Amino acid sequence: MDVTKILEKHALGNKDVHVQKLYPLSFDLGLLAAFDENILGEEITNQEALETKLMQTTRDATQLLINNIFSLPRESTDDGIFANLPKPTSIIPREKPVPKEKPLTRWEKFAKLKGIHKTKKDRMVFDEETGELRPAWGYKGINKKEEEQWLIPLPSNADSSHDVRKSLAKKRKDLMEKNKKRQKRNTEEAAQLDAKKNLSLNPKDKRKQQLKKSLVISKTSTASMGKFDNKVEGEPKVRKQKRKLPSVNRSALDEREINKSILSKLF
């Protein structure tokens, strides 16, 4: 019985983990990246041969990358065994442009002038009387502690019909309204600064921006998002709807299945 073909098929399905390259690959294990500077080799005449060669090159690079990952220190957790990746060494360009600086609000200007650093307040505060942690505000907040006292002294100049609890609650709510008004005022002032910048444009440039905006709106009103419309010289590019990507907050099991499906296409 000739088993040559069976052995060849078995050998193809179980490729060697030791890959030999003319020039060794460089790796950035922090990014799980491998860089192959070897040329593809013989001249490729058709698309099918190119696809086969690229698949083989990708498979070899992936195998070498996995070999290097297995040489890293590992730790065992409840989800499995994980390799401790080093810090990335390759500098990757930004995907998005650098965001523009937002104008400072009145409080931010004052804090910067006085050297005040913002510190995040704890949501829970220790109540010394009860010996428990209570929210600083909101439901059962410690800011309502004075209102919840079973005995509240009446001010000497207050009327006998004066409700102290209602007065304290009103004082607290007035303070909340005051803070909201301040926040609204700061937002409006920041918006006015942006408006002043736009006013600094000359009428010609301002009209040009308005025309571009109108053109984009008219393009996006079609079902094809303006793909088949005639292009105008200097026409701004229409942003297409972003592709919804899967969430990065996945469980270790889901991550493992996704990686298996990718590697199964290479090996």
TrEMBL record:
Basic residues bias: start-end ranges: 172-184
Keyword annotations: Nucleus, Ribosome biogenesis
Main localization (coarse): nucleus
UniProt-listed InterPro entries: Ribosom_reg
One CC-aspect GO term: nucleus
Biological process annotations from GO: ribosome biogenesis
Region Disordered, residue ranges: 172-251
Composition skew (Basic and acidic residues), residue ranges: 228-238
Any Pfam family the entry gives: RRS1
Top-rank taxon: Eukaryota
Localisation: Nucleus
Keyword Oxidoreductase attached: no
Family label: Belongs to the RRS1 family.
Protein task: Involved in ribosomal large subunit assembly.
Protein name in UniProt: Ribosome biogenesis regulatory protein
Organism the protein comes from: Smittium megazygosporum
